[in-house]
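Key result, reporting period 2: structure in, sequence out.
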């Protein structure tokens, strides 16, 4: 019996220890995910704070006395609200402080530019900023809840009367979702809120404390799927030095320099050394070795380093204890609506308090003025005192806005004898009148709540907007093709016998310098073509007749080819471009018959069309065995075209006779002022049609004139005032103030040395260029600062002859000039030039055709 009981007990114990955790796991994980989303990682829509940030702000308010507090002390106090360690609270406080909005900092709080960390919390101090004190706190409109241990009350949400989340930004990773709200400009947010209250449309885009340049074309209102491209601000200090003055958001000077050094090690760019002079502002000097283009290096820095990066915003916030995905415009609208609601609630509370003050002030005047306090002299009980005062007040309280309560009477009994004896009826009336004026003002604000809210936002802008102007420049970026700016960091070789190409075949034939991201185009004797990426060693097939670095979209390079169709078929000739292909796919350039053979092949970088001689074999009764063919008689078609028939008879050989000229038309070039770049996409102002010999004229406000080839990757100076197609026969006219002689001069000059830049005004620091004209016969109106001096017109052609660029010019006046206005020029008829009809094409560097004969 005892053994049976023991076995039964063991069986029951065994059953009790078996527990299914499936449901428990599901419940626990959901609780954990909800906690991380709602209580740690994602900010609330109502006030823009994460819980730790809200608790930090409340702790700072608890301890606020106008003086700085040790951050360690603030962190310890915040732990009464926040159930986590001091390190996480201190880090969150530093991040809040570095946004330079809510916290007035003292000590080393780190540097967002260099990435340096803040000092330990015991060494730094903080207090609430005046903006935070005005905008964030109001105990009367705050809803409270018990803290995690029930010992204190903490705000559910702070009554923030400003789109704080959009101003500060937020980033967090939760369970199953994340958020990334980018910071926006303080002043622009206020302006947008005012526009919204006025019923007007608005648009807001981010602004970063690190400055830089940003393209918000695809911002998508900050919602999922959007993208922001940010760039460092890079300028050319001199021909051998670039300077970075602002960095992209999300980077530091350290990470930026590391990325530049890595790109240099990989051969993407070529730099001599980097000098970091960053202190209060960013200054990174990039020194370039000789014969390295600064313009191309700037584009390469954007293409291969962290000088350009892409940010993907994801606007996720918490509303009603649920994650919500809305755009920043909707966030601003809801924040503005909440600000209006809070202002209304504050006005209602203020009105109620003023009415209570008016009510008791009126009762007090009645009580003392009518000597009701004497009615209680003979009363012996407290109840009798209350009743006597109540009866004494009734004849005088009809004008009051509410009934007199027992609490009101109790307050009257607490009035001191000293106050009764010194009571001044005139002062009492003045107080009541002042309260009535305040009540009317509050009622007027409530009746015109939107106007009141607009005035509130204007007050914030006026009071706190100084120094908060936009730091990030808004610009539309042009796409940088990496292969066009990549440095030629390797060499490509070919082994024609075995059919291999690659960078490791150093013992074989050298082809060209290239970068490791380039493509190589290969033509073979059987009339096939393929394009493959640069690699250490790649098999492309034997009988290679031509290979070169391939430029995608290149319409300038024209291939001239003659081939035999099949083993014994007729011969054809064709001219074609190769602009786009599928990499590593073989293309047949012949008619497609087996046994086809290329007779003649040239690659012409500038679209040249040479003359060749055809020699036929003496077979049968052929009469004409030799004649010349000019490739310029053929149109440029696609690579898949069959071509024009040369002869049906066997070709003995084809001889190169004479080089031809380019058959391509000059290219139209535009200047897009938005992105400060040249383009061929019809964006911006048309500068003209350019051949390989044509140049652009550039004149800057600093008095530099130069000519350049119209390269599409050229970076223009910020102080450029003239950009046009250069006419070597047209003089340049200028009026300038000479700082040394303190006189105004007029000069006309030609560009003496197109290959260099020259300064045409003096080097004195007070020298100032007033105006530049590039018309043949310009006129200008000079307006003096003295009203007694009448304006006069300068006819440049009659005033001074064309002299050298270094000439000082003729003196104009010693009187101070207010402004100079360009007038319509005198008529001029340029000489007529003969026009040459040529075919359509693009501009690039010209190159002699190198024929391949077979």
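The corresponding designed sequence is given below.
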């Amino acid at each position: 019996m005892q053994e049976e009981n023991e076995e039964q007990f063991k069986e029951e114990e065994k059953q009790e220890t078996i527990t299914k955790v499936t449901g428990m796991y599901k419940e626990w994980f959901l609780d954990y995910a909800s906690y991380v989303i709602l209580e740690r990682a994602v900010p609330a829509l109502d006030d823009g704070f994460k819980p730790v940030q809200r608790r930090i702000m409340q702790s700072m308010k608890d301890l606020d006395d106008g003086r700085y507090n040790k951050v360690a002390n603030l962190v310890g106090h915040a732990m009464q609200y926040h159930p986590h360690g001091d390190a996480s609270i201190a880090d969150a406080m530093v991040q809040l402080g570095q946004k330079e909005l809510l916290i007035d900092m003292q000590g080393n709080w780190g540097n967002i530019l260099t990435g340096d960390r803040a000092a330990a919390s015991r060494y730094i101090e903080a207090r609430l900023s005046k903006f935070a004190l005005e905008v964030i706190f109001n105990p009367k409109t705050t809803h409270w809840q018990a803290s995690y241990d029930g010992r204190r009350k903490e705000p559910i949400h702070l009554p923030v009367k400003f789109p704080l989340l959009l101003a500060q930004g937020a980033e967090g990773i939760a369970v199953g979702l994340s958020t990334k709200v980018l910071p926006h400009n303080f002043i622009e947010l206020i302006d947008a809120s005012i526009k919204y209250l006025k019923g007007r449309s608005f648009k807001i885009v981010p602004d970063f404390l690190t400055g830089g340049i940003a393209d918000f074309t695809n911002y998508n209102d900050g919602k999922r799927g959007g993208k922001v491209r940010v760039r460092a601000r890079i300028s050319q200090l001199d021909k051998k030095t670039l300077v970075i003055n602002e960095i992209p958001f999300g980077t530091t000077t350290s990470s930026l320099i590391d990325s530049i050094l890595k790109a240099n090690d990989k051969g993407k760019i070529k730099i001599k050394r980097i000098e970091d002079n960053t202190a209060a502002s960013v200054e990174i000097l990039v020194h370039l070795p000789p014969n390295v283009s600064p313009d191309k290096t700037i584009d390469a820095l954007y293409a291969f380093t962290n000088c350009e990066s892409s940010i993907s915003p994801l606007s996720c916030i918490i509303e009603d204890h649920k994650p919500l995905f809305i755009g920043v415009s909707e966030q601003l609208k809801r924040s503005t609506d909440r600000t209006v609601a809070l202002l209304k609630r504050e006005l209602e509370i203020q009105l109620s308090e003023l009415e209570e003050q008016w009510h008791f002030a009126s009762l007090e005047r009645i009580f003392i003025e009518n000597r009701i306090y004497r009615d209680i002299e003979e009363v012996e009980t407290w109840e009798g005192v209350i009743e006597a005062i109540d009866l004494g007040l009734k004849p005088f309280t009809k004008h009051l806005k509410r009934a007199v309560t027992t609490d009101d009477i109790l307050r009257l009994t607490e009035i001191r004898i000293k106050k009764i004896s010194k009571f001044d009826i005139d002062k009492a009336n003045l107080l009541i009148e002042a309260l009535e004026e305040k009540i009317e003002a509050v009622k007027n604000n409530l009746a015109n709540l939107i106007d009141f809210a607009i005035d509130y936002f204007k007050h914030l802008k006026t009071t706190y907007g100084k120094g908060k102007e936009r730091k990030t420049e808004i610009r539309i970026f042009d796409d940088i093709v990496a292969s066009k700016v990549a440095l030629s960091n390797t060499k490509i070789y070919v082994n024609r016998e075995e059919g291999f190409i690659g960078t490791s075949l150093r013992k074989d034939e050298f082809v060209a310098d290239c970068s490791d991201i380039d493509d190589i185009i290969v033509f073979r004797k059987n009339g096939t073509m393929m394009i493959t990426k640069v690699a250490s060693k790649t098999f492309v097939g034997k009988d290679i007749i031509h290979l070169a670095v391939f430029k995608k979209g290149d319409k300038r390079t024209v291939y001239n080819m003659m081939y035999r169709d099949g083993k014994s078929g007729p011969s054809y000739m064709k001219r074609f471009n190769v602009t786009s292909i599928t990499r590593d796919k073989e293309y047949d350039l012949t008619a497609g018959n087996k046994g086809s053979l290329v007779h003649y092949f040239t690659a012409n970088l500038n679209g040249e069309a040479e003359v060749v001689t055809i020699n036929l074999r003496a077979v049968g009764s052929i009469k004409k065995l030799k004649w010349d063919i000019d490739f310029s008689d053929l149109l440029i078609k696609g690579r898949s075209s069959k071509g024009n028939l040369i002869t049906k008879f066997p070709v003995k050989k084809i001889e190169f006779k004479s080089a031809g000229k380019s058959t391509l038309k000059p290219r139209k070039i535009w200047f897009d002022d938005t992105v400060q770049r040249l383009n061929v996409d019809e964006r911006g102002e048309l500068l003209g049609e350019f051949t390989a010999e044509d140049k652009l004229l550039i004149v800057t406000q600093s008095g530099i004139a130069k000519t350049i080839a119209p390269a599409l990757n050229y970076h223009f100076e910020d102080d450029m005032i003239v950009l046009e197609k250069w006419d070597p026969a047209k003089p340049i006219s200028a009026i300038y103030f000479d700082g040394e002689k303190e006189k105004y001069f007029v000069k006309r000059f030609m560009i003496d040395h197109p290959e260099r830049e020259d300064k045409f005004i003096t080097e004195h620091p007070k020298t100032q260029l007033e105006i530049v004209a590039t018309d043949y016969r310009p006129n200008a109106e000079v307006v003096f600062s003295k009203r007694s001096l009448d304006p006069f017109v300068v006819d440049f052609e009659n005033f001074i002859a064309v002299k050298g660029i270094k000439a000082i010019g003729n003196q104009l006046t010693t009187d101070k000039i207010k402004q100079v206005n360009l007038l319509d020029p005198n008529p001029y008829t340029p000489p007529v030039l003969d026009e040459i009809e040529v075919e359509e094409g693009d501009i690039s560097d010209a190159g002699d055709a190198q024929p391949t004969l077979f």
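Residues 833-849 have pLDDT under 50 and may be disordered. Residues 328-369 form the longest helix (42 residues). This case is discussed further under Risks and Mitigation.
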